[in-house]
Amino acid sequence: MKQLTTLLLAAALAVPLTSMAASAHDSHGSAETHQLQLNAGKKWDTDAPLRQAMTAVHASVTKILPAAHAGKATAADYDAFGNAVGQQVAYMVENCKLPPEADAQLHIIVADLVAGAEAAQGKHGEGKRAAGVVQVAQASNAYGKYFSHSGWKAVKLPH
């Protein structure tokens, strides 16, 4: 993730996740205007830091999802989840080295991870916390659909 590494790393270390998402959007346009694509019909290659970070995100979302769905997750649970996702995004930004085309695709997923983490932390209203967890789960599933990660399993979403 060479092109945006310095900017996002600085943002991850110095400002809240909200600003980090804005930085990602400012650098490459709105994530809503970009659509994930395969690499000539194949999944994009990954590197070890990306796989490590996404495995940790997967574990975090899988852990909190049942409680969030049941309405039993606490504000502290959501905050810890959002922080864990934010830490993995920062790690990814600092350590992941993908070719520019794959990097651009990953930025779409990173923007969704950041937005979901923010929502889980209540930054878009208390009623959006569970939806933030779902957004992170969906971003994780998109990662598995578009990026090559041996052994990756989709997060099972309720309903």
List the helices and strands and how they pair.
Blueprint: H1 2-14, H2 17-28, H3 48-69, H4 75-95, H5 100-120, H6 129-146
Keywords: Signal
Protein name: DnrO protein
Organism: Comamonas flocculans
Could you describe the 3D structure shown?
By secondary structure, the protein is mostly helical. It has a single domain (2-14, 45-146), classed as Four Helix Bundle (Hemerythrin (Met), subunit A). The chain is 67% helix and 0% strand. The chain is built from 6 helices and no strands. It has helices at residues 2-14, 17-28, 48-69, 75-95, 100-120, 129-146. Helix 1 (2-14) packs antiparallel against helix 4 (75-95) and helix 5 packs antiparallel against helix 6. The radius of gyration is 15 Å and the shape is globular. This is DnrO protein. Residues 1-21 form the signal peptide. Keywords: Signal. It comes from Comamonas flocculans.
Mean pLDDT: 84
Quickly give the CATH architecture: Up-down Bundle
CATH class: Mainly Alpha
- Mind describing the biggest β-sheet? none
By secondary-structure content and strand pairing, the structural class works out as mainly alpha
Strand content: under 5%
- Summed up, the helix count is 6
Stretches where pLDDT falls below 50 for ≥5 residues? Answer: 1-33
Number of strands: 0
Order of helices and strands: HHHHHH
Report the principal-axis shape.
Answer: globular
Q: Domains counted in the coordinates: how many?
A: 1
User: Rg, please?
Assistant: 15 Å
Keywords: Signal
Organism: Comamonas flocculans
Signal peptide: 1-21
Protein name: DnrO protein
